[in-house]
Design a protein that fits this description.
Blueprint: E1 2-6, E2 14-17, E3 27-37, H1 39-46, E4 56-57, E5 61-69, E6 81-84, E7 87-88, H2 94-97, E8 108-109, E9 121-125, E10 129-131, H3 138-158, E11 165-169, H4 173-184, E12 189-194, H5 197-206, E13 209-212, H6 218-225, E14 231-236, H7 241-249, E15 251-259, H8 271-275, E16 281-284, H9 293-301, E17 311-315, H10 319-330, E18 337-340
Parallel strand pairs: 11-12, 11-14, 12-13, 14-15, 15-16, 17-18
Antiparallel strand pairs: 1-2, 1-4, 3-5, 3-9, 3-18, 5-6, 6-10, 7-8
Helix pairs in contact: 1-10, 3-4, 4-5
C-alpha cells in the first residue's frame, strides 16, 4: 500500500510502498477514507516534537471503513463506517482502569509513535475504534477525533455549567469547536478572542461574541461586555505566554482556566491576586478520553457541532501536496483544516 511517511526530522515527508498491516486477534484493519492534517504534524516533521520509530506514517485524525477484523473482535464487521481514537492503550494499567488512558503506561499515539493515517490502510486495536454514523461525512469524522475531542475534554475538565460565561482564546480548529460545544452546553455568554478577523467572523456566526486582541485589551473588553465581571471559565488554546496570562486575568471569582495550548516557555503568576483572592483554578488539559467520544459523535450527528465550514480543502494522498500544506502550517499561512482523501 502507499503511505506518506516521515523519514528524518527537518526533511520533507516521502511516499513509500509498504505492506498492508497484519491484523492481530484484537485488531481492526481500516481502509482510510479521510485523514486530517493537524498543526501537530508540522511540528513533528520539523522535529519540534519527537516521532519514533522512524520511518513512520503520520496522521492521527482518521476515519474510514473496516476492511478486516481480528478473530477475537466482536461488535464490528467489515464495511462498518468508523473513526479512530488516536491513543492506543493497554486497557489494563492504573490509568486505563480509572478512565484516564491518556496517561497509559504503555500507550502510544497513532501518527507519532505508531503508523498513522496518511496511508491507504491503518490497523489499530478494536478498543480504539468508534462507529461513525451515516449522517457524518468521513472528512468531518476524521477532524472530530483531534481538535473537537480535545476542546470537548477541556470543557469537561473546566466543569463548564449551564448559564456560565466563557472566554475562548484562539479560534482555530479547536476554538471554533469549543465555541459551538460551549453553546451546546448552554453557556450564557461565549467570548472568542483572536487577532484574525476572518476567524473571529466565523466564531461570531457560530454565536460567539468576538474580541479582536489587536484592537483592544481582551481582559478589559471581556469585563466591559460581561457586566464588569470576569468569566467563569477560560480556555487557552494558543500556547503563548501572553494569552495564558490574559486567560488567567480574565477569570471571575471561582473562575477556572483550562490550559490546552502547547508551549515550552514559562509564565509569571501572582498567586495572591491571580488565584487566592478569587479562589481561581488553573487546570492542565492533556488529549482527550475515549469515554467522551460517543457524546461528541452524537453532538455532531445532531448538528450541534458543525464541522463542515472548518474544512477548507480536501487533497489526495499526494506527498508533494501534503508537504506544501505542512509548509503553510509551519508559516501559519493556512486557514481551516485540510483533509487527505485517499
Amino acid at each position: 500500500m502507499k503511505a506518506v511517511r516521515m523519514i528524518k526530522p527537518g526533511q520533507p515527508l516521502a511516499i513509500q510502498e509498504i505492506p498492508i498491516p497484519e491484523v492481530g486477534p484484537e485488531d481492526v484493519l481500516v481502509k482510510v477514507k479521510a485523514a486530517g492534517i493537524c498543526h501537530s504534524d508540522a511540528h513533528y516533521r520539523a522535529g519540534v516534537s519527537p516521532v519514533r520509530p522512524l520511518p513512520l506514517t503520520l496522521g492521527h485524525e482518521v476515519s474510514g471503513v473496516i476492511a478486516q477484523v481480528g478473530v477475537q473482535v466482536s461488535g464490528f464487521s467489515p464495511g462498518n463506517r468508523v473513526c479512530l481514537h488516536y491513543l492506543v492503550t493497554c486497557g489494563n494499567c492504573e490509568y486505563c482502569n480509572r478512565g484516564s488512558e491518556q496517561f497509559c503506561t504503555t500507550g502510544s499515539m497513532i501518527g507519532k509513535y505508531r503508523d498513522g493515517g496518511y496511508a491507504e490502510y491503518i490497523c489499530v486495536p478494536a478498543r480504539s475504534v468508534f462507529r461513525l454514523p451515516d449522517e457524518i461525512p468521513f472528512d468531518q469524522g476524521a477532524i472530530m477525533m483531534c481538535s473537537s475531542s480535545t476542546s470537548f475534554h477541556a470543557l469537561q475538565k473546566a466543569r463548564l455549567q449551564p448559564r456560565e460565561s466563557i472566554a475562548i482564546f484562539g479560534t482555530g480548529g479547536l476554538g471554533l469547536s469549543a465555541v459551538q460545544l460551549a453553546l451546546a452546553m448552554d453557556a450564557m455568554r461565549v467570548f472568542a478572542v483572536d487577532i484574525d478577523p476572518d476567524k473571529l467572523a466565523m466564531a461570531q456566526e457560530y454565536g460567539a461574541i468576538p474580541i479582536n486582541a489587536k484592537e483592544s485589551d481582551p481582559v478589559t473588553e471581556i469585563k466591559r461586555l460581561n457586566a464588569g465581571k470576569g468569566v467563569d471559565v477560560a480556555l487557552e488554546l494558543i500556547g503563548l505566554p501572553v494569552t495564558m496570562q490574559q486567560a488567567i486575568a480574565s477569570l471571575a471569582v471561582f473562575g477556572r482556566v483550562a490550559l490546552v495550548g502547547l508551549n515550552a516557555e514559562g509564565i509569571e503568576i501572582d498567586p495572591y491576586n491571580d488565584l487566592l483572592m478569587r479562589e481561581a483554578e488553573i487546570i492542565g488539559v492533556s488529549d482527550h478520553l475515549a469515554q467522551e467520544l460517543p457524546t461528541l459523535i452524537e453532538l455532531v450527528r445532531q448538528g450541534k457541532l458543525d464541522l463542515s465550514r472548518i474544512i477548507s480543502r480536501r487533497i489526495p494522498l499526494d506527498v508533494d501536496t501534503i508537504n506544501q500544506t505542512l509548509d503553510q502550517l509551519d508559516q501559519y499561512a493556512h486557514k481551516g483544516r485540510v483533509v487527505i482523501v485517499p
